[in-house]
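Check the record.
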Amino acid sequence: MTLTVSRSSARQTTPDAPISYGFPPGGALVVGGVLAATLLVLDVLDGLGADPLPAAVRALLVFAGILTLPGIPIVVALRIPGRALAGILIPAISLSVTVLLTQTTIVADWWSPLRSQAILTAGSLAACIWARRTLPAHTRTGSFGFDRAHWTRRRAVELSALAASLGCFGLAVADLDVADTGRFGVIPALDPVYFLGLGLLAAVIVAALLSRRLDTLVLGAVTVVTVAYNSMLVGGATGETSIPTSFVHRGFIDVLAASHHLPDQIDARFSWAGFFTMSAHVKVVGGIGDLTPVLLWAPFVAGVVVSFGIYAIAIAITGRARLAWVSVLLYHGFNWYQQDYFSPQSMAIIGYTAILGTLLWQLRAAPLPRLDGGRIAGIVNGFRRTPGRVPGFGPGRTVGIEMVLIVIIAANTVSHQMTPMLTVLALAAFAATGTTRYRTLWLAAGLIFAAWFSYGATDFWLGHLQSLVDEVGKVGQSVEAGLGDRLSGDPTYTRMQYLRMLASGGFAVVGLIGWLIWRSKKAWLVGGLLCAAPFVLVALQSYGGEMIIRCFLLASPVLGPFAALALAAGGAALRRRLRATHLRYLGYGLLWAVVMILALLETTNRGLNTAFEATTRDEVTTTDDFIASVPPDATVMSFSYAPQSTGVRRILDPHGPRFSFIDSFPCLDDVARCARERWPDYIYVTNQGLKMLELQYGQSPDALRDAVDGLIRTGEYRLVVRTENVEILRAGTPLEDQ
């Protein structure tokens, strides 16, 4: 038999009871409707050849639409309660719908961004009107803290301190010279004003979290400033994204926008092109000539958006707002992985946290049958248990939420290779523990993944099937690729990697302690399985040596709440020891010191690769000019990687430049011999590439410099371009000075 909760046992809402929202639903629908109508008008005008708005304004409106439509009317119609859950579902739904529409049009050869935009905006406008007509007569919205009573002296002091901290951050960013970074990362290159700003931020964090009454406005501002410190330090200093792979994605998007179809057998990532097709759509309808400025701000936007999902997960697990805020800050405080850049992974995390947040909210709100009997019987009964419905949610809205989750799952499936596999495992964990009504959702997710892998990813698996099969079960190989292979190169830089391991390992251990302590939580068992699920992927593939990093990253949204519970237990013990007033301030000081140490550790870990990941404006513009002007069929040998060179000409043009790379020790041992064997037309050298060879391959800076100069001394190559960060050598006769 199946353990279920009868309808009569669930709390029911009366017809006249107000429906709870985390925001004013009517106002949200007005905003969504006006935005949809504006975008629709702009779309029509664009089709007629008119463009009445400045390019920047139009781009911002398009991005606002991508993040909110049709998410707003759907969330309002489903009557999703809580600001955090609505805040993550709205962008997750909106992004997913756009991904599925654009991916469908490009696969079916119906690619037309203006037509797709018209469908999206017209549909969203109709949905806003429909949702407004079905809006309940009585709604209840939680306080936003803007009323006069909340504007206290304490809030003024805390917000002023945050403003001062942000000002210090801005000054530090303006003075940061990434050329001064090396094996210790960004820390030695920072001015004292940065640490002053970080100290102010730590002080506000401690004061806001220990306040008797939580101030949502201050804590929200704290989160935004924390995300800025974590994601905008290097990018703000250079004016370019701090993750070079973003330029590869820029190139892929330019290819799709120019060709209107998916290229065959070019790159495996085109087998999961949902994110790229959506971005190409945005590039066209937004009138964005160059996506480079978007790359800079993407980590900040992604960090703010995913914070809603982390809070939703944490409030469902801990049941306490204070610990939910701690969880959000812990997530960002240990997020050194830099996977929040302009990438499919970043969008997939938004979708994944939205799925977990929704299912954990339902688990917390719905009645759940007890598992009677011993441990074995409890496990068996867990497979047969089905929770009741969330009070106030009938069959229609319950199924509607499931349909929304399927849309998010489908969008992630066509956008990212790994996250859909984890989603299947996570959904299976819910089903196995009897903590979701959607008992077959894991099967649906698995079928969607299998269908796309069989149909949409044929270019990938036909060429990689043997390696995929060989990697299954090779846990040691995956661990070696994720850890051992990264502990090489410059000795000091290698030792600094242990700080990253310490941070991730310590975070996981504290989360495990919290999980062991708080066994009474309703989400205890499934929460533990969700923390462990990402690490199962290690047995499936190495993911190019990045699987270990991704495991910790994808476990963090659930590890954070359990770590917060562990800290709450430790904090309670500390408070008992520091009851006296004069010792209470000592406790505040100790907490400030702990937060400050963790912040410095995160700054170090996040900025450890700055020397070869930071991209200067000079490298971008010089490389763009070089790729545009290089003769047809030219061959280029690059010192290490050249992400900025990826683009339409290099991928689509059959007579475009062909790159090879100096990324092996035999070639590095004798660059002149390597050049003679390949005889490239150009040799492309960037400061970024030299720093990668220095730190990750252990090459001496002097030896690398001598290798470049040695090519010139042979007379076989002449220096034709030299800027602060780029050198280009040409075989034979030199070009005119540039």
